């Protein structure tokens, strides 16, 4: 995609739009999402002549140009009512007894209709006019500016669809993502040409597993398995995998995020260019690479990846071994092993069981911190590397509290015999979470640093709430289950309060105030919103809502 002519042209339009319209309310992503009405060459000629005619283009000429040559952003995804949507499905949230809560849950459930789309046949016919990629089945988009399917968002969308008994829609999403692996070798960050250079947290196997648990569909496992094997190769290739030798001389392999991209992200090019103004040309390329790699992590952006939490240009994502990524890959290995066993491929099952055991041992040896009683990320220092092998240094563990430090709880809950991850699961881990400062009044904070980046304090994100709550709820400890339920109740209440106030579900919430959505970051707070809806429905399915429990916070 580096020389993708459509993207190159749309980025010229994007920077002209900024010059013409000014920075207020400017969203660069809008321009790289515009579908062309004509062949590219015709639009480029018209654009060049517009430039020749007038040095600075007037707003009205610019708007006329947009209207003549482009359709509206998002018009290449057509509204499609999901085939399996029912206003109140049989067996829906049976444990929700409170009438007000049930009424709201049905409203949240009904939002699936608004977020459901199909890629237009026009995209299949003339792909060169669209940055949107063709997908065969129904998609659920996150909402607002996110008018395409996203990789890791889809896991929580599917969790919600399962609560909504929409199994066909859930499967269609999975088949779409599989089609991306078949075409590109990995699931893209999102289904746009400008996302081909990177993936997002690998959760496809978790989507398949959860759907299989509800439907028993072995065909799904058979279709998914070859794709998951390809995806696994992607995450353990030289690009992502690093070898680290521990203090006993054992070598371990763990993975990191690393996009194949050294330019401004097309969807945010004007912002990336502005941020990099003070950098030299080679520093710029490295910075763009680190930003795109942070986007691969799903945590774009966060003090978690920054050497100096007040300076985004110090983002160094590729120098970090993230605990959540390795948990997801370990889960992918366990899922592959389980699916292979069910479908009768015992040697693949055995091979991936062994890979998962090695990764668990690596996580425990390198990322577990016994003093903090939690897992942590690890900073790679190039001075510690000899012939491509890093020597483990305990001082390089990142001891700051991030919600991601507790994501292994989720894996432990799904595969309870994964105890190689930890000496022994005991109440100290729960105490460590409670004392971390991450548990806010209305949810789990992403970090403890308020940097103005969206993956930091005071923002709480639905996926992080869900993985930790799910992990605690299934930890076979009454204390852990109680904590899980209280986090879930507060999270539901704040989502409910914000919905009552604004009429919308939000992409992120402020965990310090009731009913407030989150902010910060590089774009305006978005509504819709796929994963938030999914997590509310999944929590209500798990914990229910008794008649006499107050709905407001
Ligand atoms: O346009 C800026 C960035 O937007 C996306 O990231 C955020 O939204 C995604 C969709 O909900 C979500 O998956 C991600 O975790 C959010 O940070 C996009 O994924 C980025 O690649 C993009 O640069």
Automatic annotation (TrEMBL):
Entry superkingdom: Eukaryota
UniProt keyword terms in alphabetical order: Glycosidase, Hydrolase, Signal
Lineage: Eukaryota, Viridiplantae, Streptophyta, Embryophyta, Tracheophyta
EC identifiers of the protein: 3.2.1.28
Protein name: Trehalase
UniProt family annotation: Belongs to the glycosyl hydrolase 37 family.
Coiled-coil regions, chain positions: none
One Pfam match: Trehalase
Chemical reaction(s) catalysed: alpha,alpha-trehalose + H2O = alpha-D-glucose + beta-D-glucose
SUPFAM superfamilies given in the database record: Six-hairpin glycosidases
Gene3D superfamilies: 1.50.10.10
PROSITE patterns listed in its UniProt record: TREHALASE_2
Top-level enzyme category: hydrolase
GO molecular function: alpha,alpha-trehalase activity
């Amino acid at each position: 995609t580096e020389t993708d002519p459509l993207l190159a042209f749309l980025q010229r339009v994007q920077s002209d739009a900024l010059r013409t319209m000014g920075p207020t309310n400017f969203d660069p992503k809008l321009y790289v999402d515009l579908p062309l009405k004509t062949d590219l060459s015709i639009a480029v000629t018209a654009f060049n002549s517009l430039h020749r005619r007038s040095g600075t283009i007037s707003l009205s000429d610019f708007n006329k140009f947009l209207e003549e040559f482009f359709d509206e952003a998002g018009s290449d995804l057509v509204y499609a009512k999901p085939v399996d949507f029912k206003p109140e499905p049989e067996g829906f949230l049976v444990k929700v007894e409170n009438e007000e809560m049930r009424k709201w849950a049905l409203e949240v459930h009904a939002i699936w209709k608004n977020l459901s789309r199909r890629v237009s046949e026009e995209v299949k016919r003339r792909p060169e006019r669209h940055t949107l990629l063709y997908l065969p089945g129904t998609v659920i988009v996150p909402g607002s500016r996110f008018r395409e399917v996203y990789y890791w968002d889809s896991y929580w969308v599917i969790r919600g669809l399962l609560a909504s008994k929409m199994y066909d829609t859930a499967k269609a999403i999975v088949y779409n993502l599989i089609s991306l692996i078949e075409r590109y070798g990995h699931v893209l960050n999102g289904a746009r040409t400008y996302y081909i250079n990177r993936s997002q947290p690998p959760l496809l196997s978790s989507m398949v597993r959860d759907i299989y648990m509800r439907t028993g569909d072995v065909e799904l496992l058979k279709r998914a398995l070859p794709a998951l094997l390809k995806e696994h190769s992607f995450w353990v290739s030289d690009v992502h995998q690093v070898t680290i030798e521990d203090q006993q001389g054992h070598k371990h392999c763990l993975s990191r995020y690393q996009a194949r991209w050294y330019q401004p992200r097309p969807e945010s090019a004007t912002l990336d260019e502005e941020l990099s103004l003070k950098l030299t040309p080679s520093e710029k390329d490295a910075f763009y690479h680190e930003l795109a790699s942070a986007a691969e992590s799903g945590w774009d952006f966060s003090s978690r990846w920054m050497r100096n939490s007040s300076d985004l240009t110090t983002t160094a994502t590729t120098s970090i071994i993230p605990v959540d990524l390795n948990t997801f890959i370990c889960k992918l290995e366990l899922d592959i092993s389980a699916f292979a066993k069910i479908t009768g491929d015992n040697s693949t099952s055995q091979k991936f069981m062994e890979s998962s055991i090695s990764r668990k041992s690596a996580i425990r040896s390198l990322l577990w911190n016994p003093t903090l009683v939690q897992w942590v990320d690890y900073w790679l220092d190039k001075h510690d590397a000899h012939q491509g092998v890093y020597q483990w240094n305990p001082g390089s563990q990142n001891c700051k509290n991030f919600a991601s430090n507790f994501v292994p709880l989720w894996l432990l809950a799904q595969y309870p015999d994964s105890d190689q991850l930890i000496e022994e699961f005991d109440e100290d881990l729960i105490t460590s979470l409670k004392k971390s400062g991450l548990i806010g009044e209305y949810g789990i904070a992403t970090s403890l640093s308020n940097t103005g980046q969206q993956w930091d304090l005071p923002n709480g994100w639905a996926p992080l709430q869900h993985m930790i709550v799910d992990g605690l709820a299934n930890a076979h400890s009454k204390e852990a289950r109680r904590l899980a339920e209280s986090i879930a109740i507060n999270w539901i209440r704040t989502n409910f309060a914000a919905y009552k106030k604004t009429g919308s579900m939000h992409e992120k919430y402020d965990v310090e105030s009731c009913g407030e959505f989150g902010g910060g970051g590089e774009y305006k707070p978005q509504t819709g919103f796929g994963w938030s809806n999914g997590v509310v429905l999944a929590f209500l399915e798990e914990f229910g809502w008794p008649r006499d429990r107050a709905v407001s916070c």
